[in-house]
Amino acid sequence: MKTNQFNVEEEQKKIVLERFKTLNPESKIFLGGDSLVSVKELMGHVEKGDDFGKNIIKVQMKMLQILAKEVK
């Protein structure tokens, strides 16, 4: 019998990608220093699951948690 497993990291990845899809892919986001990165580039890192992409997911999830607390 096959069990359904809930993969938190995969679900968070989907949430972040869906959030980014609401933005203009060519929009640039300032990351500090002189770094500007397009939404499209951020999505690429998230999709690949590289270290930078994982950090993006963490930051986005933290931001969503903060926003959810503000709504209460």
Cα-based radius of gyration, to the nearest Å? 14 Å
Overall morphology:
globular
**What is the string of SSEs from the N terminus onward?**
HEEHH
Number of strands: 2
Helix content class: 55-70%
Give start-end ranges of low-pLDDT stretches: none
What is the CA–CA distance across the termini? Answer: 41 Å
Number of structurally distinct domains: 1
Main sheet record: 2 strands, antiparallel
Structural class: alpha+beta
Our count of helices gives 3
Query: What's the arrangement of strands in the largest beta sheet?
Result: 1-2
Mean of pLDDT = 90
Q: Work out the strand percent.
A: 5-15%
Structure description:
It is built from 3 helices and 2 strands; from the N terminus they run αββαα. It is of the alpha+beta class. It has one domain. The longest helix has 21 residues.
Brief sketch in words of this structure:
The chain is an alpha+beta fold and 72 residues long. It is built from three helices and two strands, in the order H-E-E-H-H.
Task: Write the topology of this structure.
Layout: H1 8-21, E1 28-32, E2 35-38, H2 39-48, H3 51-71
Antiparallel strand pairs: 1-2
What are its keywords?
alpha+beta; globular; 72 residues
